[in-house]
Design goal:
Layout lengths: L12 H8 L9 H9 L3 H19 L7 E15 L9 E19 L1 H68 L5 H36 L23 H11 L1 H21 L5 E14 L10 E13 L7 H67 L5 H36 L7 H5 L5
Antiparallel strand pairs: 1-2, 2-3, 3-4
Length: 450
């Protein structure tokens, strides 16, 4: 797998400073908020650090197959004393010193466990890259969801306030008509009940917007983040050209979750090879060069100082015979873990396929819903206009107008939410298929009002 998709695209310092001190009067785009979140989100930063750690861990396995070179040295000073037995001869004392040094090179020739660990390191690195990619995609979805949650709450609150104003006007009209005797008290009470309900909904909407804004601030690390709105009459994303089976097939090879599970199976297989290698011999080539300097002779000689050099080469064979059954049970353990990893891979593949189908059909249904809500909005507006006209000429009663108003504003609210859901579901489909990248935010960014 290419690691180009896992390069760390950090937010430039100047851009981070500008975003961090952005005031609430300046609206930020979705791309700007995602860039800010990359440098703030703890989970994403943790995934990046884990990737760097696994990169270093993978390189550690080179030590098992490349030459190992060691330098050793020692210096000693010895007092040598001789006292013959059975005599009164005085002891003979003599001091001498020894200095030695050696350079040893060991080149593994046959180490099955070391080669299995080396291949395992490569799989670990690819798995870390997939984990980093999954963390980036998860952050992208979380920021996008928080972004559009704020817009949804803003729209809901604005529509409730508009509805409250319209109901208030209808309440005032009902009161005037009751005073002049052209309407009953029922119309006044209906309008008052709708006005009180709109007031309660306004309070709930204000609180919901406050909470959604705090969630967005927490997601992107900004204070008083203000998302840009969609431009009026914005055309949403196109429906996928490929069928659902094509997306599912793509997800089975591209999804970070599936790739992590597949690599987990490969890692488990290499762990079995490492355990099995415990029954196999190892062969190493050793080359050493040792030098010894004797100062004032040695214990066996009183000659003067001298140097001794002893180069050597050897092939070392190590054959394991018995390890107290530990190797045998280690093999059984790794085989069982390999079976578990195989089941985990199958579970990840099925779960990803299900998530892809869910996102695909959700996107198709969402696009259809938007069209239906647009038609319903036009119909509800016509119905409201007709009921207002009928009320003004005495054909309809006040409750007819109130019901039409409620239906229109509910349709407007549902339409706005459906439009935002389509944009997020489109990203979720790409996440499930494993193709989601930060570049996929740009088409959505282009839909925002300048």
């Amino acid at each position: 797998m290419s690691l180009s998709r896992t390069l760390f695209r950090t937010l430039p310092l100047t851009a981070a400073v500008v975003l961090a001190f952005a005031s609430s009067a300046h609206a930020q785009s979705l791309v700007e908020m995602f860039d800010a979140a990359r440098g703030y989100d703890a989970g994403f930063i943790s995934a990046k650090a884990q990737f760097e750690a696994n990169l270093a861990k993978a390189n550690q396995t080179l030590g098992g197959i490349l030459p190992n070179i060691a330098l050793t040295g020692s210096v000693s000073r010895t007092k040598f004393q001789v006292r013959p037995d059975g005599t009164q001869t005085l002891a003979q004392d003599r001091l001498y010193g020894t200095g030695s040094g050696a350079v040893t090179l060991v080149q593994p020739i046959y180490r099955p466990a070391a080669w299995a660990a080396y291949r395992q390191g490569g799989y670990l690195l690819q798995q870390a890259a997939a984990q980093y990619e999954a963390a980036e995609q998860d952050l992208l979805i979380r920021v996008s969801q928080a972004y559009f949650d704020v817009l949804t709450s803003e729209d809901t609150l604005a529509l409730v306030q508009t509805q409250k104003q319209a109901v208030g006007e209808q309440l005032a009209s009902a009161k005037r008509n009751f005073e002049v005797g052209t309407a009953t008290i029922t119309g006044v009470r209906d309008a008052q009940a709708r006005f009180d309900l709109a007031t309660a909904q306004e309070i709930a909407g204000e609180n919901d917007l406050r909470i959604k804004r705090l969630a967005l601030d927490l997601a992107v690390g900004l204070s008083n983040a203000k998302p840009k709105r969609l431009a009026n009459n914005t055309k949403l994303v196109e429906a996928p050209k490929e069928d659902v089976n094509s997306w599912v097939t793509l997800s089975e090879t591209s999804s970070p979750a599936v790739r992590q599970a597949q690599l987990g199976l490969d890692i488990a297989s290499q762990e079995v090879n490492k355990a099995t290698a415990g029954h196999k011999p190892t062969i190493d080539a050793q080359v050493s060069y040792t030098g010894v300097r004797n100062v004032d002779g040695t214990a066996a000689s009183v000659t003067g100082s001298n140097h001794v050099f002893t180069p050597s080469a050897a092939v070392v064979l190590n054959v394991p015979l018995f390890a107290g059954f530990s190797t045998m049970y280690r093999v059984k353990e790794t085989v069982a873990l390999e079976d578990k990893a195989r089941s985990d891979y199958e579970n990840a593949r099925r779960a990803t396929a299900q998530a892809t189908r869910t996102a695909y059909f959700g996107l198709m249904a969402g696009l259809s819903q938007v069209k239906a809500y647009e038609a319903a909005e036009a119909s509800s507006q016509s119905a409201l206009d007709a009921n207002k006209l009928g009320y003004s000429v005495g054909v309809n009663i006040n409750i007819d107008v109130l019901n039409s108003q409620s239906q229109l504003y509910q349709t407007k609210r549902d339409l706005a939410k459906a439009r935002y859901d389509v944009l997020v579901t489109n990203l979720k489909l790409r996440q499930a298929a494993g193709t989601l990248t930060p570049a996929d935010l740009q088409p959505i960014n282009d839909l925002l009002a300048p």
